[in-house]
Amino acid sequence: MLTTIIYRSHLDDEVPVSIIPGMVEKASLLNARHQVTGILLFNGTHFFQLLEGPEEGVLDIYARICADRRHHNVVELMRDYSPSRRFGNHGMELFDLRHHDSVSVLQAVLNRGTSKYRLTYDDRGLQFLRTFVEAREKENYFEVLPTDYWNFVPDDNTSPAPATGVTFRPVVDPLAREVTALEALPEEAPEGLYGEAVYKHNLATVTAVLNKAGRSCPDDIMLYVSILPMTLVVLPDAVDRIVNAIESAELVPQQIILGVSETEVISQLEAFSQAVRRLKLAGISLSIDNFGDGSAGLSLLAHVQPDRVRIGAGIVRNIQRSGPRQAVVHAVLRCCSALEINVIAADIEQPEEWMWLEAAGVTDFQGALFTASGASVAWPETREAI
């Protein structure tokens, strides 16, 4: 299976540029043993490389590249498959952009083409190359600091008062050192429940959690609770019972964010939209969770216009290395910015994931990276400040 991987990376500041020709020569020999061909562009700071060959060989070479400490901020821009190689004659050929103008380099690259079809910039891989040469991708490419730049220090003062039967998970603005919401986690339905029984259990659990959490949640913080979206459709009194639970817990509706997952099938979108209107008329906010993981994301934004969306592991995991995931997040942020919808990034595990998303414009986060123990928050601090 002929596979193509295109990536971009940043030369380590401690590595002299003079070693690059020798590095390319060794890479060409290694690539030849794996039947991998391609080209490498260098602009004085960044590398752009196109690798082509058998899938196993390309993946092995790329794994070695990712582990090479002579560069960092490795971002995979494209992984695709094709019937023939674009550049089949070279294990690795270097184009140093510092010595050529963009037009001559682009033509030189086309001249190295070996495809039986005429190479043009209609080809997706070559479009990436052209964008790099013309330096048009800078608004979407963020450099993140090394992992060891930050340390995450637990702060016991951020834990809410304990509540029997309720587990809290904080939503935080790390750089502002602020807890912006607490998510109260309801119990999952036991096995053996089907149909309407599932939604009855879900509603009972949500209302119970609201009652219990109200005793522990501070008055000045938002409380986040997830609910199955079809619970609001199948059970006619669901909204009324939620409002009553909020009042019973001595909370205010404007303090509540009700989260529904995009991955849960909503078979009656109009009925769901009407339930959302009743929630909003009561003052309750709505969040679409797992945004981008399901099939209804943009349709839901158009129909119900939530106050928040929450993106999770399906998009954020290793986002610092994935060009496609970065492009999806950029699109989500642009869309949500136009609609004044706040974006929460959940399931954050790595400092690099947080740094990239923070640079992209996300301010609210959840995940193991920021949770020390229980609901205590681990705030990021530079190692020099500790």
TrEMBL record:
Residues 2-93 form the BLUF domain. PROSITE patterns: BLUF, EAL. Residues 125-386 form the EAL domain. SMART domains: BLUF, EAL. InterPro entries: Acylphosphatase-like_dom_sf (IPR036046), BLUF_domain (IPR007024), Cyclic-di-GMP_PDE-like (IPR050706), EAL_dom (IPR001633), EAL_sf (IPR035919). This is Diguanylate phosphodiesterase. The lineage of its organism: Bacteria, Pseudomonadati, Pseudomonadota, Gammaproteobacteria, Enterobacterales.
